[in-house]
Amino acid sequence: MPNNLNSKNVVLLGAGPMAMDYAKVLKHLGVNFTVVGKSLKGTQEFQKQMGIPAISKGLIGWQKEKRCKADYAIVAVSCEALANTAIELMDMGIRKILIEKPAGLTAKQIKKVCVNSQKTESKVFVAYNRRFYASVKEAQKLIEKDGGIQSFNFEFTEWCDQVAKKLKESTTGENWFLANSSHVIDLAFFLGGKPKEFHSYTAGGNDWHPTATVFSGAGITHSGALFSYRANWDAPGRWGVEVLTRKRKYIF
What we know:
38% of the residues lie in helices and 25% in strands. By secondary structure, the protein is α/β, with parallel strands linked by helices. The model has no long low-confidence stretch (mean pLDDT 93).
């Protein structure tokens, strides 16, 4: 990856904490990149903390620059703007895009990104990065040696008090299950296989996620592995995935 990017131009959309993390990696890899944020305040704060200049006014501001060409794009904007930003980039001719999870705030938005990527023949990758952890890759090798997965379970607890603070000026809350919890769920089914059938139950709810705060369910994957899951956002806890084979238990 570093060798592929060293001779390319990358545009990083976003100037918040996630974009800062991407900038640190790109800088470490010696990649030529341009940061594009939305507000002047946000881009100034980015420059203050990172020592890297950032263009304000989003894609419109970037297009006004003389050097607004890019081979790759990284989309690290707010969840509300993920889908539209990715689609605009594709329409501008950028064909290789890494977009932060979950690529849209609703299933409809995500589908639009998918349809547009097919239409423009773009390669769009959603940043469910836990799939690529060294521990996960090693576990996959061992699981294959063990003869495959028999069962797995996972928990995607969220810390409501901390989440609420982040959502003061955001509409992401009511879609928080998709916006954040899907990280853990993706890892579980990436290892265990796609579900063939399952039954789910929910309860509770709060001001920013009224549909539910307690989740439970179970099912079976296409490969025959049994799975179960639970989460209680109203109680203490942490995320976790456990995978069981005939020989071992893998804990993430």
